[in-house]
Design goal:
With 99 residues, this protein is mainly alpha-helical. The chain has 6 helices and 2 strands. The mean pLDDT is 80.
Length: 99
């Protein structure tokens, strides 16, 4: 979560997006077999919380109220293999374009 805080603070300098920071947070949790099962609460914008919060600890305190209870253990090895689901380049492009 500290890394996400710093991403949101340096994002305007690197021309990054809030969506990438949020996606990266999910990816980091998935890398350690933890899935976040909840969506961002209504009227809550994680990027603005990160930008307007002076310290990582305060950011974690504000976001952990909904992130941490939504964590579930999730083994990545239980997911289907990408090569099986997307056997060719055409299928990969279709998935990326939501077709």
């Amino acid at each position: 979560m500290t890394l996400v805080f710093y991403w949101f603070n340096f994002m305007p300098l690197s021309r990054g997006t809030a969506a990438l920071g949020y996606l990266s947070m999910h990816a980091m949790f998935l890398a350690i077999d933890i899935e976040i099962a909840a969506s961002v609460p209504k009227d809550f914008q994680m990027d603005w919380e990160g930008i307007l919060t002076p310290t990582p600890k305060e950011f974690i305190d504000r976001t952990s109220k909904w992130v941490y209870p939504a964590r579930t253990k999730h083994a990545i090895t239980d997911l289907p293999n990408v090569r099986t689901c997307l056997p060719n380049f055409r299928k990969m492009i279709q998935v990326m374009n939501h077709l």
